[in-house]
Amino acid sequence: MSILFENTPQHEEVTPMVARYIDIKNSLKQAILNKEYRVGDKIPSERELAVRYEVTRVTLQKAMHMLEQEGFIERIHGKGMYVTKVIEDNVYLLNNGTSDSILGFSREFKDNVKVSSRLISLKTLKADDYIAGQLDIDENDDVHFIRRVRLVDNIPVLVEDSYIPCAVVDIIPEYILQNASLYEFIENKVGRKIKFYNSVIEASLFDDTLSALLESESGLPMLKVSGITKLEDGKTFNYSISYNRADKFKIKNSWVGK
């Protein structure tokens, strides 16, 4: 029996301030990893940090929310923010609830690590009944099938399959798939922003084919993520399945009671 985790983030408008709050989050995260703030330490208040980084409270709060989602800090009502158990620096969080999760793997992780891709397959297929249903298209419509190995700091960490209707994007250059962000290319190509992502995460094991692509042993645990991504007009443009190394990716789920 599989236990499924659903994640349906809604994308907010990307503004120049996004990069700033990611910078702040990364700065504080590095301070924690460097043990400038140790587990159990109270960190400065949002007001103090906003002054230090010369940003508004709203921007600072976004950075702190990301740190909270990633498991580095805990907010205790009436007391402040404290460092919690530090997550290993070589483990990454899947679908962590931040707005960047919707923008694709390259843009989600680019501020923290070196992200690269190895193209395995790019071809046009006729959509079968299942793929057509996921993409809201007719059976036998043409779709691009893309298989890539994604690397973090030159280490293969996941295999990603994507199905994209040719009616939405007619041509996808190979150099984009190997050297750039596919989602950024699609936004520029169709002139519309990505607005919606819905995914299901389940546990599985790597078979011989996937293990060979990741240069690892067969039978190791994986986190399989199946997701549908839509443009701002509601048009589905991607059905993807990613097979993630369980030793490199974790899932964090936070709940705060009233």
Observed structural traits:
alpha+beta; Chorismate lyase; Arc Repressor Mutant, subunit A; seven-stranded antiparallel beta sheet; 258 residues; 28% helix
Task: Please give the structural blueprint.
Elements: E1 5-7, H1 17-33, H2 46-53, H3 57-69, E2 73-76, E3 80-83, E4 92-93, H4 105-109, E5 115-126, H5 129-135, E6 142-152, E7 155-165, H6 174-179, H7 182-190, E8 194-205, H8 208-213, E9 221-231, E10 236-245, E11 249-250
Parallel strand pairs: 4-11
Antiparallel strand pairs: 1-8, 2-3, 5-6, 6-7, 7-10, 8-9, 9-10
Helix pairs in contact: 1-3, 2-3
Count up the helices.
8
Average pLDDT score:
82
**Tally of strands:** 11
CATH superfamily of the largest domain: Chorismate lyase-like
N-C termini distance: 32 Å
Reported for the largest beta sheet, the result is:
7 strands, antiparallel
- The succession of helices and strands, N to C, reads EHHHEEEHEHEEHHEHEEE
- CATH topology of the largest domain, which one? Chorismate lyase
For the largest sheet, list the strands in their spatial order: 1-8-9-10-7-6-5
